[in-house]
Specification:
This protein is of the alpha/beta class and 151 residues long. Helix content is 19%, strand content 44%. The strands form two sheets. Strands 1, 2, 4, 5, 6, 7 and 9 form a seven-stranded mixed beta sheet that branches. Strands 3-8 form a two-stranded parallel ribbon. The chain is globular and about 45 Å long.
């Protein structure tokens, strides 16, 4: 493995509505999907990061409820060897379902696409990181740790 040049922390929200999970993808590459979130800024907690990101991207309030997964990920991003720690939170929102769907259909940040994916269709989507698709279908309520390396 190449020497790590950058370490970063990502917070991600698993927000469900009517048995559908909210996913995001870049407008210019809508093939690889992930749960919404973002990089934690210096001095910021993962919970604060998620709340900030949802306000910035969709003008939505969310309430992170439980830390579900921690993912250690080694990858190369634009030629930079990166070690990333992802904290995946189960979240709720005080917004009614119709408002959730309306705000994600017309996001504030137009460089991202947002989709509500039914649980029974998740296997048809390329959801990153790879561990997440399977983990989301399991019913474990215990905190789980995953690690993946560059190949």
């Amino acid at each position: 493995m190449p020497q790590v040049q950058r370490v970063q922390i990502r917070a991600a929200a698993m927000l469900w509505d009517q048995d559908c999970l909210l996913l995001q993808a870049p407008v210019d590459h809508p093939v690889r999907w992930a749960v919404p979130g973002g990089h934690v800024e210096t001095g910021e907690t993962t919970v604060t990061c998620l709340k900030r990101e949802f306000i910035e991207e969709m003008d939505l309030r969310i309430d992170p409820q439980k830390l579900m997964y921690v993912h250690e990920h080694f990858y190369c991003d634009e030629g930079i060897s990166t070690q990333e720690y992802g904290f995946y939170w189960s979240c709720t929102s005080p917004h009614p379902s119709s408002e959730l769907r309306d705000r994600t259909a017309r996001p504030v940040e137009t460089h991202m696409l947002f989709r509500w994916v039914p649980r029974n269709e998740m296997d048809q989507w390329k959801i990153l990181p790879d561990f997440l698709s399977k983990a989301l279908l399991e019913t474990s309520l215990e905190l789980r740790f995953f690690s993946s390396q560059m190949t």
